[in-house]
Amino acid sequence: MRIAVFGANGPTGRHLTDQALAAGHEVVAVTRRPGSLAERRGLTVAVADATDEEAVTAALDGTDAVLSALGARFSKDTITTYSAGAMAITGAMARHGVKRLLTVSSSIADPHWRPTGAHFFNLVLDPLVNRRFGRTLHEDMRRMETLIRRTDLDWTLVRPSGLFDHPTVTAYRTAESSADGVFTARPDLAASMLRELEERRYVRTAMGVITTVVKPNIAKLIWNEGVKKK
Ligand SMILES: NC(=O)c1ccc[n+]([C@@H]2O[C@H](COP(=O)([O-])OP(=O)(O)OC[C@H]3O[C@@H](n4cnc5c(N)ncnc54)[C@H](OP(=O)(O)O)[C@@H]3O)[C@@H](O)[C@H]2O)c1
Q1: Boundaries of every domain in the chain
Q2: What is the rounded distance in angstroms from the CA atom of residue 69 to the CA atom of residue 212?
Q3: Which of 5, 28, 32 has the most ligand 1 atoms within 8 A of CB, as the residue to mutate?
Q4: The CATH homologous superfamily of the domain defined by 2-228
Q5: Where are the beta strands (DSSP E) in the chain?
Q6: Which tens digits make up the pLDDT trace of 22-56?
Q7: Which label site among 64, 73, 183, 203 has the fewest CB atoms less than 10 Å from its CB?
């Protein structure tokens, strides 16, 4: 398959690109910063801002499916990356007749998601970090989800929990709507998307994905996600 990957130079997008190439797919890596991606066999780099429908339309020429790991940083201001990106990507897909879309969203987008036994997370971290500091980001994720649900594409909204780095794919779990767990390793998120591309178990619904066999080091997680990434 020839797969377009949005957010290809981001931490999840890099796993998606690597794993897709390793599985024998061709990848069109869509990025604003082409210099950040090394040339490789099977990889084409397309320069586009994901919110620019004309540029996205050019990037999607000849592709069979779209995987998006686009993301924005927390901000107190209104965020539009997710919804504007979804608008441009779904518009460009319609123009090309490309039907299959898998987009990273978040477990937070499921209003019923409360991981079992995670009392400190549910009572302290989630309200403070996700619902307060991440309020505008998650509002835009929900706008993205609504926009994608209204299309006639074969979409899957992929909802990971707290992302962390890990060197390999593990025995991750998926579930409809959201999965019961606090963390998701990025290689597992990427692997779940590529597997769903083949298996089509969650077409026109949301797929939660969590990692259970390894847990992140919390101090490292806060440093990597909260401090280093800013
Ligand atoms: N962190 C968590 O705990 C968590 C939990 C659940 C879900 N998520 C979601 O998971 C996804 C992946 O997160 P991540 O931390 O692996 O990646 P990330 O650091 O959020 O990377 C985002 C990627 O999107 C690209 N991007 C942003 N705006 C763009 C635009 N207008 N045009 C083109 N590219 C654009 C960035 O490219 P540039 O380098 O050009 O900026 C980067 O490659 C995100 O949607 C995030 O919100 C995260």
Answers
A1: 2-228
A2: 21
A3: 32
A4: NAD(P)-binding Rossmann-like Domain (3.40.50.720)
A5: 2-6, 26-31, 43-47, 65-68, 100-104, 154-160, 162-164, 173-176, 183-185, 205-210
A6: 999 999 999 999 999 999 999 999 999 999 999 99
A7: 73
